[in-house]
Amino acid sequence: MMWFNFFPLLVLFVGLFFPLQGYAFNPSHLQQLKNTKSCPRCDLERADLSALDLSGANLNGANLKYAILTGTNLKAARLRAANLKGAKFKQTILEGAQLQKAILREVRLQGHNLSRANLSRADLRRADLSNSNLRRTIMEATNLEHSKLTWARLEGANLRSANLKSADLSWAILEMADLRGAHLQKALLVETIFLGANLVRANLTGAEMIAPNLINAVLTHSIWTDGKTCDNGSLGKCLRIK
Prior knowledge:
Radius of gyration: 22 Å
InterPro entries: 5peptide_repeat
CATH architecture of the domain at 104-241: 3 Solenoid
Helix content: 10-25%
CATH superfamily of the domain at 104-241: E3 ubiquitin-protein ligase SopA
Order of helices and strands: HHEEEE
Strand order of the largest sheet: 1-2
Shape: elongated
Keywords: Repeat
Number of helices: 2
Largest sheet: 2 strands, parallel
Number of strands: 4
Distance between the termini: 88 Å
Strand content: under 5%
Protein name: Pentapeptide repeat-containing protein
CATH topology of the domain at 104-241: Pectate Lyase C-like
């Protein structure tokens, strides 16, 4: 019958235009990474990198979408501009990782240690970073819009010009953090600790602040929740410009 003659062509068409999703990475790239710890701009999409020691590895610009990173050691790894969208993180070591301009949109990194990592200009929109260790992390101009940072440890973090619009920072610790020029519009700030933080020129318009700790926080020229600008000498509270 004509159907049986057509069936092989249908299978070929499906194979060409709708490849199986389970095997998307380049096997030679995976072997190169295992052998040399250097695979910049490699295609490792959906690769299983579980439990590998990739500390200090060069993965700049690599495609790591949907990669499995369970127990992977990425301490001080170079991941600049790497695409990690959909990557599976579980007990992944990321301390000191270089993630500038990396794509980490919607990833789940709750409870992970990213202390001293560099996430400048990375895309972390809608990422879950709750209970994570972000002490002294560099997140200058990082996009954290709609991200979840509840109970996160951000002591000494650099968040200058970071986009934290509509982010949930409830119970987060931002002691001595640098938030100069940060965008905190409509952020949720329930009992958030800003002890000694620098919020000069930060924008807090529409933020929901419930019992935050602002002791010694510098608020000079920041825009308060009501849209009013804080005057010089605003320390611990916003002094409205008269």
